[in-house]
Amino acid sequence: MSTAMPAPERSRRIPAAFALITAATLALTACGSGGAADTTGGAAPAGKTGGIPTTDVVSSVEKNPAAARLLPPDVRDRGTLSVAASVGGTPPGAFYREDGRTITGQDIDFADAVAKVLGLRLKREAASFEAILPALGSGKYDLGTGNFGVTEERRRTIDFVTYINDGQGFAVRQDSELTKITHFEQLCGLNVATGAGTTFEVTLEDNKHLCAEAGKEPYAVKTYAEPGAVWPALRQGRADVVMSTINGLRYAVRQQEGLRFLGEYRRLDVGFAFKKGTKLAPAFRAAVNQLIEDGTYDRILKKWGTQASAIRTSRISPPEAKG
After folding, report:
1. H helices within the chain, ranges in order?
2. β-pairing, 37-38 with 220-224?
3. 3-class DSSP state of 304
4. Cα–Cα distance for residue pair 4/109, rounded to 1 Å
5. pLDDT tens digits, residue range 26-80?
């Protein structure tokens, strides 16, 4: 999710698959873009990215004094927060624009909009997905973004403030015999590609035993540190199935011929991630709810084509969604 856990920090580079994904056009309005953060990160090769939505859904957001008063006094005084952002995989979460340095995506818009509501400036740093949660625990960053799904395991060490509902799904090549995956025995004997350190990897590993119990050949889990690398693996036959975020899968198959989305497997709430016991959560929840109330929230979802992920209200570390 990235309902997406943590490896050494490094500059993120756009995989070749990402260039292919972003080369296709999106039927979305384009105009100027603005934000409330430094949105430059590690260098990445420029690619053809015409069609990436650039609608400005952030610059008109105004500070909400009531929400800002919920911030800890020291945060209000300094006016900044450090953010670790997982960047460089499958849109629409967070990825590099064609200049190879500017970060864009749904996660970026939501974080920047919340910052404007709270009257803060974000100091954003690109970090590997699997490194962010441990870094929050050590106090290196104030918060993390990366389509982090709220799970019971993560809730033991991390606090979340929810802003969308995404989840787990599957995609295949058009010639696959699979039509919809409802149980893991359908994957037996196949190669399943997914992102390293994600809830998808954990889910796949936890359910491998089902194949043996059914007397079938286990499936093989193929993990990739760069989320976008799963797509050439699928297209070239090194993988039979991709397991990833619902929004990421839908976006990717729209941009690449010969692929097919198999539907949703399960849903998870997704949130901003914080060190356990953070005092920032009430202010962030108020800010997200302000965005829902004033219409900014809907504009961000419409920009990225993710209206199905809307939530009615933001919550702090809700129980993991089941089923």
Report:
1. 16-23, 65-68, 73-78, 106-118, 129-138, 152-155, 199-207, 209-213, 230-235, 246-255, 281-294, 296-304
2. unpaired
3. helix
4. 18
5. 222 223 223 344 433 333 322 334 468 899 999 999 999 999 999 999 999 999 9
Asked whether the bond before 319 is cis by omega within 30 degrees of 0, the reply is: no
Phi, psi for residue 244 in degrees, rounded to 5:
-160, -165
Sequential DSSP letters for 13-38: ---HHHHHHHHS-----------SEE
Count of other CB atoms within 10 angstroms of residue 164: 26
**Per DSSP, what are the bridge partners of residue 37?**
122
For residue 152, give the amino acid letter. E
Any idea of the CA torsion for 314, 167, 271, 302, to the nearest 10 degrees?
-70
pLDDT at 88: 65
**193 touches 239 (CB < 8 A):** yes
Phi first, then psi: give them for residue 202, nearest 5 degrees.
-60, -45
Helix (H, G, I), strand (E, B) or coil at 76: helix
Give the Cα separation of 286 and 290 in Å (integer).
Answer: 6
Residue partners of 262: CB distance under 8 A and separation at least 6? 169, 170, 171, 172, 178, 179, 180, 181, 241
What are the tokens at 183?
Answer: 């149980």
Report the pLDDT averaged over residues 217-240. 92
3-state class (DSSP) for residue 227:
helix
Q: What is the DSSP letter of 102?
A: B
Q: What is the 3-state secondary structure (H, E, C) of 262-278?
A: EEEEEEEEEEEEEECCC
Which of 91 and 151 is assigned the larger pLDDT? 151
pTM of the model: 0.77
Q: What confidence tier does 12 reach under pLDDT thresholds 50, 70, 90?
A: very low
H or E segment at 180? Answer: none
